[in-house]
Protein backbone atom coordinates (compact mmCIF):
# COMPACT_ATOMS: atom_id res chain seq x y z
CA UNK A 1 0.00 0.00 0.00
CA UNK A 2 1.53 3.38 -0.95
CA UNK A 3 2.55 5.38 2.11
CA UNK A 4 2.13 9.07 2.75
CA UNK A 5 5.45 10.88 2.81
CA UNK A 6 6.17 14.61 3.02
CA UNK A 7 6.78 16.54 -0.22
CA UNK A 8 10.37 16.90 -1.37
CA UNK A 9 12.14 19.90 0.13
CA UNK A 10 15.23 21.76 -1.15
CA UNK A 11 18.55 20.73 0.33
CA UNK A 12 22.21 21.50 -0.18
CA UNK A 13 23.87 18.74 -2.19
CA UNK A 14 27.60 18.09 -2.24
CA UNK A 15 29.04 16.05 -5.10
CA UNK A 16 31.89 13.96 -3.68
CA UNK A 17 33.20 13.39 -7.18
CA UNK A 18 34.73 16.86 -6.93
CA UNK A 19 37.13 15.54 -4.27
CA UNK A 20 38.25 12.51 -6.28
CA UNK A 21 41.69 11.68 -7.63
CA UNK A 22 41.03 11.38 -11.39
CA UNK A 23 43.52 8.50 -11.68
CA UNK A 24 41.24 6.35 -9.44
CA UNK A 25 44.00 4.68 -7.37
CA UNK A 26 41.60 3.56 -4.62
CA UNK A 27 38.66 2.55 -6.84
CA UNK A 28 40.66 0.90 -9.63
CA UNK A 29 44.00 -0.15 -8.11
CA UNK A 30 46.63 -1.22 -10.61
CA UNK A 31 47.07 -4.97 -10.87
CA UNK A 32 43.78 -5.69 -9.11
CA UNK A 33 40.92 -4.07 -11.02
CA UNK A 34 40.00 -5.07 -14.56
CA UNK A 35 37.99 -2.52 -16.54
CA UNK A 36 36.29 -3.07 -19.88
CA UNK A 37 34.70 -0.18 -21.72
CA UNK A 38 31.48 -1.39 -23.32
CA UNK A 39 31.32 1.56 -25.72
CA UNK A 40 33.61 4.59 -26.15
CA UNK A 41 30.92 6.93 -24.83
CA UNK A 42 29.00 5.08 -22.15
CA UNK A 43 29.31 2.01 -19.99
CA UNK A 44 32.08 0.10 -18.23
CA UNK A 45 32.30 -3.30 -16.55
CA UNK A 46 34.63 -3.66 -13.57
CA UNK A 47 35.97 -6.85 -11.97
CA UNK A 48 38.25 -7.31 -8.97
CA UNK A 49 36.80 -4.51 -6.82
CA UNK A 50 34.51 -4.89 -3.80
CA UNK A 51 32.40 -1.75 -3.47
CA UNK A 52 31.46 -2.36 0.16
CA UNK A 53 35.15 -2.22 1.14
CA UNK A 54 35.93 1.13 -0.47
CA UNK A 55 37.48 3.87 1.63
CA UNK A 56 36.15 7.43 1.59
CA UNK A 57 38.64 8.18 -1.18
CA UNK A 58 37.39 5.18 -3.13
CA UNK A 59 33.78 6.33 -2.82
CA UNK A 60 34.73 9.80 -4.02
CA UNK A 61 36.39 8.21 -7.04
CA UNK A 62 33.30 6.05 -7.63
CA UNK A 63 31.20 9.22 -7.86
CA UNK A 64 33.57 10.70 -10.44
CA UNK A 65 33.94 7.47 -12.43
CA UNK A 66 30.16 7.01 -12.62
CA UNK A 67 29.75 10.61 -13.79
CA UNK A 68 32.36 10.07 -16.51
CA UNK A 69 31.22 6.65 -17.76
CA UNK A 70 27.47 7.19 -17.07
CA UNK A 71 26.85 3.48 -16.31
CA UNK A 72 29.23 1.13 -14.48
CA UNK A 73 28.60 -2.55 -13.70
CA UNK A 74 30.57 -4.21 -10.89
CA UNK A 75 30.68 -8.02 -10.75
CA UNK A 76 30.76 -10.40 -7.75
CA UNK A 77 29.56 -7.87 -5.18
CA UNK A 78 28.37 -8.68 -1.64
CA UNK A 79 25.72 -5.96 -1.41
CA UNK A 80 22.90 -8.53 -1.37
CA UNK A 81 24.34 -9.93 1.87
CA UNK A 82 24.85 -6.62 3.68
CA UNK A 83 22.47 -5.53 6.44
CA UNK A 84 20.00 -3.05 4.97
CA UNK A 85 21.23 -0.37 7.36
CA UNK A 86 24.77 -0.73 5.98
CA UNK A 87 23.59 -0.57 2.39
CA UNK A 88 21.61 2.59 3.11
CA UNK A 89 24.55 4.14 4.94
CA UNK A 90 26.66 3.45 1.86
CA UNK A 91 24.17 5.02 -0.54
CA UNK A 92 23.58 7.96 1.77
CA UNK A 93 27.20 9.00 1.42
CA UNK A 94 26.45 10.20 -2.10
CA UNK A 95 23.27 12.15 -1.34
CA UNK A 96 19.94 12.29 0.46
CA UNK A 97 17.88 9.16 -0.15
CA UNK A 98 14.97 9.31 -2.56
CA UNK A 99 11.82 7.51 -1.41
CA UNK A 100 9.74 6.05 -4.21
CA UNK A 101 6.18 6.69 -3.08
CA UNK A 102 4.52 3.86 -5.04
CA UNK A 103 7.07 1.05 -4.99
CA UNK A 104 7.42 -1.92 -2.72
CA UNK A 105 9.99 -1.68 0.07
CA UNK A 106 11.22 -3.79 2.99
CA UNK A 107 9.25 -3.08 6.15
CA UNK A 108 10.78 -0.09 7.93
CA UNK A 109 13.09 0.81 5.04
CA UNK A 110 11.15 2.94 2.51
CA UNK A 111 14.45 4.12 0.97
CA UNK A 112 14.88 0.71 -0.69
CA UNK A 113 13.06 0.48 -4.04
CA UNK A 114 12.16 -3.13 -4.85
CA UNK A 115 11.37 -4.64 -8.24
CA UNK A 116 10.07 -8.20 -8.10
CA UNK A 117 9.20 -10.76 -10.78
CA UNK A 118 7.79 -14.07 -9.57
CA UNK A 119 8.84 -17.39 -11.06
CA UNK A 120 5.45 -17.64 -12.78
CA UNK A 121 5.62 -14.08 -14.19
CA UNK A 122 4.69 -14.02 -17.87
CA UNK A 123 4.15 -10.28 -18.42
CA UNK A 124 7.09 -10.11 -20.82
CA UNK A 125 5.73 -12.81 -23.07
CA UNK A 126 2.29 -11.21 -23.03
CA UNK A 127 3.78 -7.80 -23.82
CA UNK A 128 5.73 -9.09 -26.81
CA UNK A 129 2.63 -10.81 -28.17
CA UNK A 130 1.25 -7.32 -28.81
CA UNK A 131 4.48 -5.41 -29.57
CA UNK A 132 7.50 -5.89 -31.81
CA UNK A 133 9.97 -4.91 -29.05
CA UNK A 134 10.16 -3.95 -25.40
CA UNK A 135 10.89 -0.25 -25.95
CA UNK A 136 8.42 1.70 -23.82
CA UNK A 137 8.24 4.77 -21.63
CA UNK A 138 6.63 5.57 -18.31
CA UNK A 139 7.11 7.91 -15.39
CA UNK A 140 5.73 6.89 -12.01
CA UNK A 141 6.81 9.94 -9.98
CA UNK A 142 5.07 12.68 -11.97
CA UNK A 143 3.89 14.34 -8.76
CA UNK A 144 7.40 15.60 -7.96
CA UNK A 145 8.53 19.17 -8.61
CA UNK A 146 10.96 18.01 -11.29
CA UNK A 147 9.37 14.86 -12.76
CA UNK A 148 11.49 13.03 -15.35
CA UNK A 149 9.11 13.62 -18.22
CA UNK A 150 8.82 16.22 -20.98
CA UNK A 151 5.37 17.01 -22.33
CA UNK A 152 5.81 20.28 -24.19
CA UNK A 153 8.65 22.58 -25.26
CA UNK A 154 7.83 26.15 -24.24
CA UNK A 155 7.99 28.66 -27.08
CA UNK A 156 7.10 26.22 -29.85
CA UNK A 157 3.77 25.48 -31.50
CA UNK A 158 2.26 22.13 -30.59
CA UNK A 159 3.14 20.49 -33.90
CA UNK A 160 6.72 21.78 -33.67
CA UNK A 161 7.07 20.62 -30.07
CA UNK A 162 5.62 17.17 -30.82
CA UNK A 163 8.00 16.75 -33.78
CA UNK A 164 11.09 17.68 -31.75
CA UNK A 165 10.09 15.56 -28.77
CA UNK A 166 9.47 12.51 -30.95
CA UNK A 167 12.92 12.98 -32.49
CA UNK A 168 14.53 13.21 -29.03
CA UNK A 169 12.58 10.26 -27.60
CA UNK A 170 13.50 8.11 -30.61
CA UNK A 171 17.12 9.23 -30.30
CA UNK A 172 17.25 7.93 -26.72
CA UNK A 173 15.36 4.71 -27.39
CA UNK A 174 16.87 3.69 -30.72
CA UNK A 175 20.45 5.02 -30.87
CA UNK A 176 22.62 2.00 -30.17
CA UNK A 177 25.80 4.11 -30.17
CA UNK A 178 24.75 5.77 -26.91
CA UNK A 179 23.42 2.66 -25.19
CA UNK A 180 25.05 0.14 -22.88
CA UNK A 181 23.52 -3.35 -22.92
CA UNK A 182 23.99 -5.27 -19.67
CA UNK A 183 23.29 -8.93 -18.95
CA UNK A 184 22.73 -9.51 -15.25
CA UNK A 185 24.64 -12.22 -13.40
CA UNK A 186 24.49 -13.09 -9.67
CA UNK A 187 26.31 -10.46 -7.61
CA UNK A 188 26.10 -7.71 -10.21
CA UNK A 189 25.75 -4.15 -8.90
CA UNK A 190 25.10 -1.37 -11.40
CA UNK A 191 25.85 2.29 -10.69
CA UNK A 192 24.50 4.88 -13.10
CA UNK A 193 24.18 8.66 -13.25
CA UNK A 194 20.44 9.24 -13.48
CA UNK A 195 21.01 12.92 -14.29
CA UNK A 196 22.15 12.09 -17.82
CA UNK A 197 20.84 8.58 -18.54
CA UNK A 198 17.60 6.66 -18.94
CA UNK A 199 17.19 2.94 -18.32
CA UNK A 200 15.04 0.30 -19.96
CA UNK A 201 14.43 -3.37 -19.20
CA UNK A 202 14.65 -6.14 -21.78
CA UNK A 203 12.70 -9.37 -21.61
CA UNK A 204 15.85 -11.39 -22.12
CA UNK A 205 15.03 -14.30 -19.86
CA UNK A 206 12.35 -16.97 -19.59
CA UNK A 207 13.91 -19.49 -17.25
CA UNK A 208 11.19 -19.82 -14.63
CA UNK A 209 13.32 -18.17 -11.95
CA UNK A 210 12.33 -15.46 -9.51
CA UNK A 211 13.95 -12.08 -10.17
CA UNK A 212 14.41 -9.67 -7.26
CA UNK A 213 16.09 -6.28 -7.64
CA UNK A 214 16.82 -3.63 -5.02
CA UNK A 215 17.69 -0.03 -5.85
CA UNK A 216 19.10 2.79 -3.71
CA UNK A 217 18.77 6.28 -5.19
CA UNK A 218 20.72 9.21 -3.72
CA UNK A 219 19.35 12.61 -4.72
CA UNK A 220 21.54 15.32 -6.21
CA UNK A 221 21.26 18.98 -7.12
CA UNK A 222 18.10 20.45 -8.65
CA UNK A 223 18.29 20.77 -12.45
CA UNK A 224 19.29 24.16 -13.81
CA UNK A 225 20.14 25.55 -17.21
CA UNK A 226 23.82 25.97 -18.01
CA UNK A 227 24.56 28.77 -20.52
CA UNK A 228 26.35 27.73 -23.68
CA UNK A 229 30.02 28.60 -23.83
CA UNK A 230 30.49 31.74 -25.87
CA UNK A 231 27.20 33.33 -24.87
CA UNK A 232 27.28 36.99 -23.96
CA UNK A 233 28.13 37.23 -20.29
CA UNK A 234 29.62 33.75 -20.29
CA UNK A 235 32.96 34.48 -21.91
CA UNK A 236 36.10 33.46 -20.08
CA UNK A 237 36.63 35.76 -17.14
CA UNK A 238 33.01 36.96 -16.98
From TrEMBL:
Segments for region (Disordered): 1-21
Chain ranges of the TauD/TfdA-like domain: 147-217
Oxidoreductase as UniProt keyword: yes
Gene Ontology CC: cytoplasm
UniProt cofactor(s): Fe(2+)
One function term, GO molecular function aspect: metal ion binding
Gene3D superfamilies cross-referenced by the UniProt entry: Clavaminate synthase-like
Alphabetical UniProt keywords: Dioxygenase, Iron, Metal-binding, Oxidoreductase
Biased composition (Basic and acidic residues): 12-21
UniProt family annotation: Belongs to the TfdA dioxygenase family.
PANTHER family: ALPHA-KETOGLUTARATE-DEPENDENT SULFONATE DIOXYGENASE
The protein's name in its UniProt record: TauD/TfdA-like domain-containing protein
Amino acid sequence: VPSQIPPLTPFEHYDHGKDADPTFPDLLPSGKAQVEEITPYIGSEVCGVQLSQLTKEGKDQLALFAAQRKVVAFSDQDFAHLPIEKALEYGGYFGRHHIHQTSGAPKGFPEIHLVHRGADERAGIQFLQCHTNSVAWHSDITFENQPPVTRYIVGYKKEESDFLLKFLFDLIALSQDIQMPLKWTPGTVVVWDNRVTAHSALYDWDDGQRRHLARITPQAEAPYETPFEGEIGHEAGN
